[in-house]
Write a structure and sequence with these properties.
Largest sheet: 8 strands, parallel, barrel
Distance between the termini: 22 Å
Number of helices: 11
CATH class: Alpha Beta
Helix content: 40-55%
Number of strands: 10
Strand order of the largest sheet: 1-2-5-6-7-8-9-10
CATH topology: TIM Barrel
Number of domains: 1
CATH architecture: Alpha-Beta Barrel
Strand content: 15-25%
Low-confidence stretches: none
Shape: globular
Order of helices and strands: HEHEEEHEHEHEHEHEHHHEH
């Protein structure tokens, strides 16, 4: 079932979450161990992130450095199929621009269609560690809107190889939105302009970047509606779990902590205390969002479901 159908057919706020593929060497059971505790809350869909290749440099005997491409996590497509088979719940694979040609993207979408996976979240993706800025594949897409256009074209039966008659796909496309704006955008106005372009290209719903101030989400939704974006906007929530998150999350995701949250975190002496603050704040956020009638609350678990379970126990 498509995500958009789940959203439009429900009168109540839905529950969903996102997981990471495990590091290579771990079994599929590590995925199931993170999902099992959350199934009691009846998630309508589970997102699975996609991770592009990274590069390492190995010094050879002649003193030269050889660039080696590696993938630290197994394929998202296979994990989505395993989730749908085990839990009978819709899986939403992330598709990214970085590291992939248009042909590779098309092949991935054909595989998804074959497996009966009819939802995708289309993202540009981040730059890799060895690059200071995002660099698209030379035969790929530079922006998420271009990726959405390719998926929409396939939904219309238009493939890269146009001399072969292929079936139309029927993907429900989601995209990302940024209540505190994407860090590369000049301002919120331009960021909203680009977001509307993604919706106009075929995105049927928006999932937001994590935020910790609900007012910023409400203002973001209002601004979207004012420029004609009418699709559902799902708030994304990330429970803070350890001391490292206090500096890492604002730095990496370019987000702010509200004053009340920052004061509570400054009192924390260890990870256990931080996790408890994160749970309490997540409950407060989620209850307010649910009371406001949001279509769904989407949790970023990072494949560790303990905090999200504690929050969901109080909300769903």
């Amino acid at each position: 079932m498509k995500v958009i159908d789940h959203l439009t057919n429900s009168k109540d706020t839905l529950f969903s979450f996102e997981i990471l593929p495990p590091l290579k060497g771990k079994s599929i059971q590590s995925i199931f161990d993170g999902i099992d505790p959350l199934m009691e809350f009846n998630p309508k869909f589970i997102n699975v992130t996609y991770h592009r290749e990274e590069y390492i440099y190995i010094e050879r005997e002649n003193g030269l450095l050889e660039k080696i491409a590696i993938r630290k996590r197994p394929g998202t497509v296979g994990i989505c199929a395993a989730i749908m088979n085990k839990y009978n719940v819709d899986a939403v694979p992330h598709l990214i621009c970085g590291g992939f040609s248009k042909e590779e993207t098309e092949n991935a979408l054909i595989d998804l269609q074959f497996l009966g996976i009819d939802n995708v979240l289309a993202l540009r993706g981040d730059s890799i560690k060895t690059e200071s800025t995002f660099r698209p594949h030379k035969d790929g897409h530079a922006y998420a809107v271009d990726l959405i256009n390719q998926i929409s074209e396939m939904n219309s039966g238009n493939y890269i190889v146009d001399d072969v008659q292929l079936e139309q796909t029927d993907f429900c496309i989601g995209t990302a939105g940024y209540p505190e704006k994407h860090f590369e955008s000049m301002n919120m106005t331009t960021d909203l302009h680009y977001l509307k372009g993604k919706v106009d290209a075929g995105a049927e719903y928006i999932v937001t970047q994590m935020f910790f101030d609900n007012q910023k989400y409400f203002e973001f939704v209002k601004a979207c509606r004012e420029i004609g974006i009418t699709v559902p906007i799902i708030p994304g929530i990330k429970p803070i779990k350890n001391l490292n998150h206090i500096t890492f999350l604002p730095k990496f995701f370019k987000i702010d902590f509200p004053d009340d949250l920052s004061r509570a975190l400054l009192k924390c002496k260890d990870n256990k205390a931080v996790e408890q603050v994160g749970i309490e704040w997540g409950i407060k956020q989620s209850q307010e969002l649910k009371a406001a009638g949001v279509p769904c609350i989407h949790y970023y678990t990072m494949s560790n479901s303990t905090s999200v379970k504690s929050i969901a126990n109080e909300v769903f």
